[in-house]
From TrEMBL:
Subcellular location: Cytoplasm
Species classification: Bacteria, Bacillati, Actinomycetota, Actinomycetes, Micrococcales
Statement: the UniProt record of this protein carries the keyword Nucleotide-binding: yes
UniProt record, GO biological process: DNA replication; DNA synthesis involved in DNA repair; double-strand break repair; SOS response
GO CC entries: cytoplasm
Segments forming domain RecF/RecN/SMC N-terminal: 3-368
Primary residence: cytoplasm
Residues binding ATP: 30-37
Organism: Cryobacterium psychrotolerans
Name of protein: DNA replication and repair protein RecF
Length: 391
């Protein structure tokens, strides 16, 4: 899989731009603020339906305009595809493939990419929500149907929270709220599937993560992933990881049996009901889980150096690309590296260049041409003030 052409209309600082891409490495060069990251943000949106920079799509629409349009020509399974999405300031977004209307949520099945940007350091050092989002986006790329499960879970969660808040306001006793039992079952059904899918994904990431970390850092610091589950007692608010479990056990479910996750989920909701009614909030489920990153048998958050944290986050994305490559029937995912090389020393730059060299297409952005190894600069696009210019 690769991008052959990207066209943007009223996207960020681009009124209109067309950018060709080739197989192998593609380098986009421009000073900070010229629009190079906007290009890869647009590509990232096609595969994740989100931005790595902002939480709302309105910021991606050029000032004064009502909509932005992303068009990408792809080479997919030996055939050419034209994918398009219109991001609207108001109303629903619209998508097409080869001029045929599709549901916007179906776009990721046509384009797979893995993006690493400086913001991804927050995967190691930031809040659990970022790590959950990372897992869920990778799940959707690997298994698009999970998108509907995640959406249904969010919908049930909101309805359940609304009921809890209403019950709190009315002073309802914990054992006198039969309606909540109905929502509990739906929450358990959907949430258990998400928990188990995440657990299997984390298990599969283990070995590619170890290989990728060593290839980037040049050393083996024992990188590992541990799922911290609220249904087993982990508390996001207090930082207590009582429910942390290692997912490298080989089990395909979070709790070790096909029925175990649902049983633990039901038990957690039952025990937490008084506290949930007191707070008007659902306190157990995949929306409150975390993923603990380990280096040298210690949590990376709080113990890893800046360089180790950077290497871990980058290795996590390379491991994701490797998993997608193994799963795919349409070729490698497009690997996108946004302003990465400026943060690395010469040895890490060479190792990273070697690590991505085998992918079908790599798109790199940099403010300074000399920061990027020569092997990755064969096809270079220069960006200035929202336009493609001659070098």
């Amino acid at each position: 899989m690769r991008v052959t052409h990207l066209s943007l209309t009223d996207f960020r600082n681009y009124a209109q731009v067309d950018v060709p891409f080739l197989p192998g490495p593609n380098l986009v060069v421009g000073r900070n603020g010229q629009g190079k990251t906007n290009l890869i943000e647009a590509l990232g949106f096609l595969s994740t339906l989100g931005s790595h920079r902002v939480s709302t799509t309105g910021a991606m629409i050029r000032a004064g305009q009502d909509a932005a349009i992303i068009r990408a020509r792809l080479e997919y399974n030996g055939r050419d595809l034209l994918t398009e999405v219109q991001i609207n300031r108001s109303g629903l977004n619209r998508a097409q493939v080869n001029r045929s209307v599709i549901k916007t949520r179906e776009l990721p099945r046509y384009f797979s990419s893995v993006l690493f940007a400086p913001e991804d350091l927050a995967l190691v050092r930031g809040d659990p929500s970022g790590r959950r989002r990372f897992l869920d986006q990778l799940l959707v790329l690997r298994t698009p149907r999970i998108s509907a499960v995640l959406a249904d879970y969010d919908r049930v969660l909101k309805q359940r929270n609304t009921l809890l808040k209403s019950a709190r306001a009315a002073g309802v006793r914990p054992n006198a709220l039969g309606t909540l039992d109905i929502w509990d079952e739906r929450l358990v059904e959907l949430g258990s599937e998400i928990i188990d899918e995440r657990a299997e994904l984390v298990r599969q990431l283990g070995e590619p993560l170890r290989v990728a970390y060593q290839s980037v850092a040049g050393e083996d610091h024992g990188p590992a992933l541990i799922a911290s589950l609220s249904i087993l007692g982990a508390d996001e608010d207090s930082g207590v990881d009582a429910g942390a479990i290692r997912v490298s056990t080989g089990s395909t479910t979070a709790t070790g049996s096909t029925t175990g996750t649902r049983e633990f989920f039901r038990a957690a909701l039952a025990s937490l009901r008084p506290k949930e009614l007191e707070r008007g909030l659902t306190l157990a489920g995949p929306h409150r889980d975390d993923l603990v990153f380990m280096l040298n048998a210690l949590p990376a958050k709080g113990y890893a150096s800046h360089g180790e944290s950077w290497s871990f986050a980058l290795a996590l994305k390379l491991a994701s690309a490797e998993l997608l490559r193994r799963d795919s029937t349409s070729g490698d995912p497009v690997v996108i590296l946004d302003d990465v090389f400026a943060e690395l020393d010469q040895s890490r730059r060479r190792r990273l260049a070697d690590a991505v060299a085998g992918f079908e297409q790599v798109i790199i952005t940099a403010a300074v041409l000399e920061d990027v190894p020569e092997a990755l600069a064969a096809h270079t696009v220069h960006i200035r003030a929202g336009a493609v210019v001659d070098g």
